[in-house]
Write a structure and sequence with these properties.
Length: about 240
């Protein structure tokens, strides 16, 4: 399975997932339609599915147009049926959604929004984390509680360490500044920051990250208790 990173809006990422031979594709979180249409056509793909991690406009903005253009089906969390534009297929926690050559496990990870889900391609060791886990950060807690977010991150943290993490935004460099302030002696983090800076300077994405890297470097995943996590989340909101 291949993943094509598509920068959208100012700092969003949408992702095309496809099989090189069969050319059947799905897109994760199309913020806008235009760059996705361009990529689909350039790669000569058949876009069949649109997968949304949550209902925020910067993750579903391209739904309607892409559905019209490619006659694709839209997939989202069952309890967000009324908030995800043009939704066709409802999924729930723990379900494995499979169609064509895709086999994707759904994790319900409330916190950022009450209906946020992650898409996990177990066979390929790839997870799309939307605005729940970022590289070196996590999403703001808008609709849920800190406890929900803490538990949601725990689910992601327990995936195999080699799992590649594709998140919803390019926030990594900014996130790294907060991490290093609270974890100044972390050599792994320092090494990762050096690599991140090189990528950013070249205009390259810092995604994907790896679960292992996040466990070692992401201050929110290193939080040992809900209290520690909540304190960090509050500090980050005003950072
Ligand atoms: Zn969001
Ligand atoms: Fe977002």
């Amino acid at each position: 399975m291949e993943v094509k990173i598509i920068p959208c809006l100012s700092d969003n990422y949408s992702y095309l997932v496809f099989d090189k031979d069969k050319k059947i594709a799905c897109v994760i979180d199309p913020s806008e339609a235009r760059p996705v249409i361009e990529a689909v056509n350039k790669l000569d793909l058949d876009l069949r599915y649109i997968l949304n991690t949550h209902h925020h406009y910067d993750h579903v903005g391209g739904n309607k147009k892409l559905k019209e253009e490619f006659d694709a089906k839209i997939i989202g969390y069952k309890e967000d049926q009324s908030r995800i534009p043009e939704i066709d297929i409802l999924v729930e926690d723990g379900q494995i959604w499979s169609n064509d050559n895709f086999e994707i496990k759904i994790f319900h990870v409330p916190g950022h929004t009450s209906g946020h889900i992650c898409y996990y391609l177990e066979k390929n060791r790839i997870i799309f984390t939307g605005d729940t886990l970022f590289s070196l950060g996590c999403g703001r807690v808008f609709e849920g509680t800190n406890e929900q977010m803490f538990n949601s991150l725990k689910i992601i943290k327990n995936l195999p360490p080699e799992t590649e993490v594709y998140c919803g935004h390019e926030y990594t460099l900014q996130n790294s500044k907060f991490c290093i302030e609270h974890d100044a002696n972390n050599l792994k983090l320092k090494k990762k920051i050096k690599i991140i800076k090189e990528k950013v300077q070249k205009g390259h994405p810092t995604v994907p990250s790896k679960i292992q890297d996040e466990i070692e470097c992401n201050i929110f995943l290193k939080a040992v208790s809900l209290d520690v996590f909540s304190n960090l989340r509050d500090l980050k909101d005003n950072f």
